[in-house]
């Protein structure tokens, strides 16, 4: 009773003192600065277009654009492309549209283009001759669209305005919800030499045989996206921010030299007419061949084509449904092979087109790599919905379009190649074919958010390559692992942007948009969520938004919605900031079990005015390096004897069933951690026991929720632990691993290192 009265008196005095003190000083408030606060302040409010679960809402819509095109490829000293197209634009939005925006990507190459105007040339000291001439003189290549006609279907001229890479077409009457508008555009442009200006499309000239290899994309005026988030997405195309396009159906006829081999987006309607009987026979064989590529056009045949340079032409007719873009490749130099790929729900064709200069590398690896990509991406996301995927070899390229992509990788003139060249080729093919999922089908806004296609694709590429390595028998050294972004994250913060930054505004896009998002997803799968929860959520996102237009919030919300894992702390830290993780082990204390009163128990009893024997039954821990471990305690019975006492204690205080289910550890280790960075992460430990065995332990990131600088964990163990490593594989992108091991290894001095090298 005296104790209780004393406690109440002390509490009353304390409160009175605090009240008197606060009368003289008003406490300052603050915002919630917890790293685990929710990110509702960063995400748009859910609505009937996009739900709080991250799914399309009941009022979600997307407009469509259908194209009918006739294209002529003119293979001349200065190659040209001419086109006539009819676009039918369908307004599924709830809004009246007074005008339509059309993208003119080729105007990036026009004289005095917007891209050139905003370019800082301070560091641009090395240019290829062709690029130098066109950029700094009035001679050489002059690119850009030449629009010769914009009319309605009756031939009446429509008013239009060109603003660099965007063209606004003013409609005679507003396009109302549910209606469509059709119009014609005729155009032409000079094709650029992409080997000279590093363009995403164009031609490559081969001086030895006088032939061109064409990879043609962004070659036609194409509709911009109108949606519930941005209205018209009509940001200028300046290079980094790629493409945002509506889905639609394409009917495309391409006229090219008769000795060219040509393929592109969509189903080739007249394959039997444009191929020789022998080539068509080989094509039919390839449709049933699953183990290796079948040569449709052999190297010997391609070498013969190189010599002809015929003047006759041939028209290739393609149809594609529900794609967002169209591209094609054409050359008389092409070797052409195919193989069938069996997916769970269908069979698709893996295809490669390459010149003899790519041999023997491409014949050996390209189509097989396409096949592996189709299988692995389908497994992690959804079955590839189209009927083919084409890989085209082109000089220093890596670019993607629906069903077709351009990829680098060539041996030297003797046909020899390095491991780096081989691995780089396999990785770029995997990456570019993988883009069929992100963003060709899961159609995110590349003009705004590069990471939504590049980052998600780089991560899935990593999974596909890890599976492929087993078949190849060698390592590809894929990017996207957390430890690979450490040098970047340790870098100059003034030259660093968060992942959530506009595509055209970011520094170091290779890290910011590709590697860092991929590393983040890898962390989620390996450490934070686990394979089962992550895979389900990732696949849910892909299936919810295939053939639709997702935004970042849709991804963030879906990953949480499908997993029941709160990831707001992760999105905020990894995606919205440039904070870093730098964890370390500061102290490890070793404890033993005892049922004897330790000094701490004695002190507690004394402070409460109680006798030790009045305390309820207890089991205490004593440590070798704490005040509890006094000389007196050394006179206690040995550890094994104390374990007998502990068994007696358990017998008296636990039921037999509880005792049978209770595992009694012999050792306890209190490990203290610090976070010197500003990014919270899970604590990943590898414990090494005295018998040589190891164990991994993961503590969730929310261990830091009340103190994001210091935390500790008590680790019970039946076996003696001799080594504790904090994240030894660096799965959390820790920027300094020197403080991650206990016991600390003694660092050799510079004198010791010199002494070891000395002869004496």
Structure description:
About 30% of the residues lie in helices and about 25% in strands. The strands form seven sheets. The protein has a seven-stranded mixed β-sheet with strand order 4-7-2-1-13-17-15, with no helix packed on it. The chain has a six-stranded mixed β-sheet with strand order 16-19-20-21-23-22, sandwiched between helices. It has about 750 residues and is of the alpha+beta class. Helix 8 crosses helix 10 (about 450-470).
List the SSEs and their pairings.
Layout: H1 2-24, E1 64-74, E2 80-90, E3 97-103, H2 114-117, H3 129-136, E4 146-152, E5 160-163, E6 166-175, E7 180-190, H4 194-197, E8 202-206, E9 211-216, E10 222-223, E11 226-227, E12 231-232, E13 248-257, E14 261-264, E15 267-268, H5 271-274, H6 277-286, E16 294-297, H7 299-308, E17 313-323, E18 328-331, E19 335-342, E20 347-354, H8 361-380, E21 388-393, E22 398-401, E23 404-407, H9 419-434, H10 451-472, H11 486-489, H12 509-528, H13 531-545, H14 552-561, H15 568-576, E24 583-594, H16 599-607, E25 620-623, H17 631-634, H18 639-653, H19 656-661, E26 667-675, E27 683-689, E28 694-699, E29 710-717, E30 721-726, E31 741-742, H20 750-757
Parallel strand pairs: 1-13, 20-21, 21-23
Antiparallel strand pairs: 1-2, 2-7, 3-6, 3-10, 4-7, 5-6, 8-9, 9-18, 11-12, 13-17, 14-18, 15-17, 16-19, 19-20, 22-23, 24-25, 24-26, 26-29, 27-28, 27-30, 30-31
Helix pairs in contact: 8-9, 8-10, 9-10, 10-12, 13-14
């Amino acid at each position: 009773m005296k104790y209780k009265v004393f406690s109440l008196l002390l509490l009353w005095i304390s409160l009175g003192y605090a009240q008197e003190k606060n009368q003289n000083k008003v406490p300052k408030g603050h915002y919630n600065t917890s790293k685990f606060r929710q990110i509702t302040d960063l995400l748009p409010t859910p609505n009937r277009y996009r739900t709080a679960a991250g799914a399309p809402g009941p009022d979600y819509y997307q407009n469509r654009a259908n194209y009918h095109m006739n294209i002529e490829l003119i293979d001349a000293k200065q190659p040209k492309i001419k086109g006539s197209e009819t676009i039918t634009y369908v307004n599924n939005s709830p809004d009246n549209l007074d005008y339509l925006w059309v993208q003119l990507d080729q105007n990036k190459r026009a004289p005095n283009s917007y891209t050139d105007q905003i370019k800082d040339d301070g560091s641009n000291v090395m240019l290829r001759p062709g690029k130098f001439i066109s950029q700094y003189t009035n001679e050489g290549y002059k690119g850009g669209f030449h629009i010769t006609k914009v009319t309605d279907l009756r031939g009446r001229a429509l008013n239009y305005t060109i603003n660099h890479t965007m063209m606004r077409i003013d409609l005679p009457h507003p396009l109302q919800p549910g209606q469509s508008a059709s119009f014609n555009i005729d155009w032409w442009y000079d094709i650029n030499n992409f080997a000279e200006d590093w363009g995403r499309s164009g031609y490559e000239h081969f001086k030895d045989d006088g032939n061109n290899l064409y990879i043609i994309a962004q070659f036609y005026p194409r509709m911009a996206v109108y949606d519930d988030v941005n209205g018209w997405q009509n940001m200028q195309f300046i290079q980094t921010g790629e493409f945002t396009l509506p889905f639609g159906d394409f009917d495309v006829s391409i006229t090219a030299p008769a000795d060219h081999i040509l393929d592109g987006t969509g189903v080739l309607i007249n394959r039997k007419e444009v191929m020789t009987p022998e080539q068509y026979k080989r094509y039919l064989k390839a449709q049933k061949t699953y183990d290796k590529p079948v040569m449709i056009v052999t190297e010997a045949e391609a070498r013969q084509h190189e010599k002809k340079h015929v003047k006759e032409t041939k028209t290739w007719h393609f149809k594609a449904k529900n794609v967002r873009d169209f591209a094609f490749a054409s050359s008389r130099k092409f070797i052409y092979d195919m193989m069938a790929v069996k997916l769970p729900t269908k069979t698709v064709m893996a295809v490669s087109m390459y010149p003899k200069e790519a041999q023997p590398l491409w014949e050996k690896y390209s189509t097989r790599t396409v096949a592996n990509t189709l299988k692995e991406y389908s497994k992690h996301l959804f079955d590839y919905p189209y009927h083919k995927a084409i890989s085209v070899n082109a000089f220093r390229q890596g670019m993607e379009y629906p069903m077709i992509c351009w990829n680098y990788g060539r041996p030297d003139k003797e046909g020899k190649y390095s491991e780096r060249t081989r691995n780089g080729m396999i990785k770029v093919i995997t990456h570019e074919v993988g883009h069929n999922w992100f963003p060709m089908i899961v159609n995110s806004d590349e003009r705004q958010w590069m990471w939504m296609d590049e980052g998600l694709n780089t991560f899935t590429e990593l999974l596909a390559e890890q599976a492929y390595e087993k078949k190849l028998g060698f390592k590809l050294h894929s990017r996207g692992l957390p430890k690979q972004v450490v040098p970047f994250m340790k870098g100059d913060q003034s030259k660093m942007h968060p992942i959530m930054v506009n595509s055209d505004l970011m520094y170091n896009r290779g890290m910011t948009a590709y590697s860092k998002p991929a590393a983040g997803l890898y962390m989620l799968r390996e450490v934070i969520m686990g394979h089962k929860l992550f895979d389900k959520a990732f696949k849910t996102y892909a299936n919810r938004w295939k053939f639709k237009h997702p935004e970042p919030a849709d991804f963030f919300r879906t990953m949480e919605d499908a997993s029941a894992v709160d990831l707001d702390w992760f999105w905020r830290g990894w995606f919205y900031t440039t904070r870093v993780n730098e964890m370390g082990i500061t102290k490890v204390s070793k404890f033993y079990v005892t049922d004897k009163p330790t000094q701490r128990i004695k002190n507690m009893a004394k402070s409460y005015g109680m006798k030790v024997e009045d305390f309820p039954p207890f089991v205490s821990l004593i440590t070798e390096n704490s005040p509890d471990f006094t000389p007196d305690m050394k006179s206690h019975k040995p550890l094994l004897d104390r374990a007998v006492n502990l068994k007696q204690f358990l017998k008296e205080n636990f039921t037999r069933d509880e005792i049978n289910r209770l595992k009694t550890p012999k050792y306890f280790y209190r490990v203290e951690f610090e976070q010197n960075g500003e990014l919270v992460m899970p604590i990943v430990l590898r414990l090494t026991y005295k018998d040589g065995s190891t164990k991994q332990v993961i503590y969730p990131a929310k261990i830091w929720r009340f103190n994001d600088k210091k935390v500790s964990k008590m680790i019970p163990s039946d076996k003696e632990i001799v080594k504790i490593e904090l994240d030894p594989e660096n799965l959390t992108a820790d920027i300094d691993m020197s403080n991650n091991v206990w016991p600390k290894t003694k660092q050799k001095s510079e004198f010791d290192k010199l002494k070891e090298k000395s002869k004496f």
